[in-house]
Design a protein that fits this description.
Strand content: 15-25%
Number of helices: 14
Number of domains: 2
CATH class of the largest domain: Alpha Beta
CATH architecture of the largest domain: 3-Layer(aba) Sandwich
Bound molecules: pyridoxal-5'-phosphate
Number of strands: 17
Length: 449
């Protein structure tokens, strides 16, 4: 380790190893170790590392026009990025608002939804409904909306009020024995409707959800019909549907937008991570024409803003990333390689005594671990299984994204895989081999503990 660090790292217990370069799926550390990055960080690096086309575009843009303030000027990269994303008005979305990270995107979504109702003459709408076992960001508003217990706990008493949560659609853990998919979906729709009634149906601003739940519960997909049922509840009560696609969107699950597989369209959608592939910090919201029109015909001014919104270099990076995704047919590739990854995971782990569930969509897949498969009881959280798995994977040259509290914020462990869209079948085979070795090592450790 290279000397003392002045960084406040995520843990003060130790500084993480330093990464110095990356190419494709490979990250190189300062001591020369090579790691296969099977999650692109946190499902970010959709093109892998070291893409020279993106690097060149960033350099060229920084030299041409590094910064302008959106209160004075627009810029070509932001305009072009918005046009590319909204070409053909997908799902009725016609306006983009770019910010620097996912939390800021969801915060903008929360505020725009509130302003929409105020502009329509419904200022009594003051409440947001989200879901347990979800994550929407680390700012006070977005954390208040998040159902990630561990990230909320110490702030609980200082979070803004006006947020409540309903159950996620999490079949592996919560669909009852003998309950059909349709009956489970109907039960969840009733629960959401009951929550609207409890709050006062004309007091709800929006319902928020991740179409595929990411880091909190590990690639949990909804059952068919679930999002249509949720949308119907929102429509009945005049609330907006905000879809948080920061982790699962921009091609990650095999369609440009995850909602394209769900048969619904959002009023406001948040995107991030894969938007810029990690080459620049960028995220944003996409806004439905009907929401935009209310603003345009009302005060005409979104009461919100950031110094670095629609940053020229960040937008230029995302524009190049998205052009490459389109030109190289990478979303179809996500579908094809997602099938390879799914088959490889099932082939290797479906009989594993400590793998309870294999789930996800496209190149967004997770394993949920269990102490034993009869009843799928989780490991004791004190064993810190997912941390041990992360360390074992790193020892074997593999970067994965593990999580704990999968079931209820306290119990349960999972590991998420989200390789770049350029991953090959051979690389998937190596990832699964290394994961299998790491899993057996971590299981060995907890069984001895
Ligand atoms: C679904 C979802 N929403 C919001 C966020 C917050 O994004 P950021 O960490 O870029 O602020 C994340 C980040 O993990 C996320 O996965």
């Amino acid at each position: 380790m290279a000397g003392m660090s002045n960084i406040l790292h995520r843990t003060t217990a130790n500084a993480p190893p330093r990464a110095v370069s990356g190419k494709g799926l490979i990250l190189r550390l300062a001591d020369g170790t090579e790691i296969i990055d099977a999650t692109g960080g946190a499902a970010v690096a959709c093109l892998g590392h070291g893409n020279e086309r993106v690097a060149a575009a960033i350099g060229e843009q920084a030299a041409r026009l590094g910064y302008v303030h959106t209160g004075f000027f627009s810029c070509e990269p932001a305009e072009d990025l918005a046009s590319l994303l909204l070409d053909g008005a997908p799902g009725g979305l016609t306006r983009a608002y770019f910010v620097s990270d996912g939390s800021a995107a969801m915060e903008a979504a929360l505020k725009l939804a509130r302003q929409y109702h105020v502009e329509r003459g419904e200022p009594q709408r003051v409440h947001y409904i989200s879901r347990r076992q979800s994550y929407h960001g680390s700012l006070f508003g977005t954390l208040a909306a998040s159902g990630n217990l561990a990230r909320r706990a110490i702030y609980e008493d200082v979070l803004p009020t006006g947020f409540s949560r309903v159950s996620p659609c999490f079949a592996f853990r919560h669909q009852r024995d003998g309950e059909s998919d349709a009956a489970y979906v109907a039960r969840l729709a009733r629960e959401l409707d009951d929550e609207f009634m409890r709050v006062g149906p004309d007091r709800v601003i929006a319902f928020l959800a991740e179409p595929v739940v990411g880091a909190t519960a590990g690639c949990v997909t909804a059952l068919p019909g679930y999002f249509a049922a949720m949308r119907a509840v929102c429509d009945r009560h005049g609330a907006l549907l905000i879809l948080d696609e920061i982790m699962c969107g921009m091609g990650r699950t095999g369609t440009t937008h995850a909602w394209q597989a769900e048969g619904v369209t959002p009023d406001i959608q948040a995107i991030g991570k894969g938007l810029g592939g990690g080459y620049q910090p960028i995220a944003g919201i996409l806004v439905a024409q009907r929401v935009f029109e209310v603003l345009a015909q009302g005060s005409a001014t979104f009461v919100h803003g950031h110094t670095y919104q629609a940053h020229p270099v960040a937008c230029r990076a995302a524009l190049e990333v998205q052009r490459i995704v389109i030109e190289d047919g990478l979303i179809a590739q996500v579908g094809a390689m997602g099938a390879v990854l799914d088959a490889a995971l099932r082939n290797r782990f479906s009989g594993h005594p400590h793998v309870g569930d294999i789930r996800g969509r496209g190149l967004f897949q997770a394993l949920e671990f269990v102490r034993d498969r009869s009843g799928n009881a989780p490991f004791d959280p004190a064993l810190r299984f997912s941390e041990r798995l992360k360390a074992a994977a790193l020892r074997n040259g593999l970067g994965i994204y593990p999580g704990s509290g999968t079931i209820d914020g306290v119990t349960g462990d999972h590991a998420l895989l989200a390789p770049p869209y350029i991953v090959s079948a051979d690389e998937i085979a190596v990832i699964v081999d290394r994961l299998a070795v790491a899993l057996d090592q971590a299981v060995g450790e907890v069984l001895r503990a």
